[in-house]
Amino acid sequence: MIASLTGRISQLGLDHLIIDVNGFGMLVHATPRTIATLRTGQETTILTAMIVREESMTLYGFAEPAERAVFEMLISVSGIGPRIAMAVLNVHTASDVERAVATGDDKAFTKVPGIGPKGARRLVLELAGKLILADGQSDELPLAQGVVWKPQVLDALVSLGWSEKDATAAIDNYVKHHPESESAAVAVALRGVLASLGTQNTIGRH
Fold first, then answer.
1. Cα separation of 23 and 7, whole Å?
2. Quick check: 199 pLDDT over 70?
3. This prediction's pTM
4. Burial classification of residue 64, based on how many CB atoms lie within 10 Å of its CB (0-12 exposed, 13-18 middle, 19 or more buried)
């Protein structure tokens, strides 16, 4: 697996670059954000992730470790491939992505071309608890007192197939048995309610 490349930038495109590594021109796909930090002829090191398919091996480049880590987490989400993951990182920084997941802000991902409301909710759901904020905070960010997350969790459950009545009952039951969850982050609360429903491994069957 190729984790990084060090060499001279020989060509820059809108969504890719070619870096000369000991006489070999390596094509690396990158976001415009990353490409904007580079100059033709510059000697540099590019962090990379290599995606191996049956018919190809493709390199994706990143300016910092956090970007690569977020990219790798994004492509672990069902329905999110490398192209969409790169689009996410073009619209949002790595810390933006982490914060959106931590706070359950699925609307942030609908700003990315190719991701609709359902895909955004699934992305937040599947990444909840997996991304750690760059400033050292966990995804359990404190919110205002009270069950402030109820409307967002209710909307997420309904979008996943539950009726509003069943979703409301599940939320109320979860809060009853986990009173400390009233001040939890949206993503944490959603994960907890789903776990209480016994659906962690059955999402998408409803």
1. 9
2. no
3. 0.64
4. middle
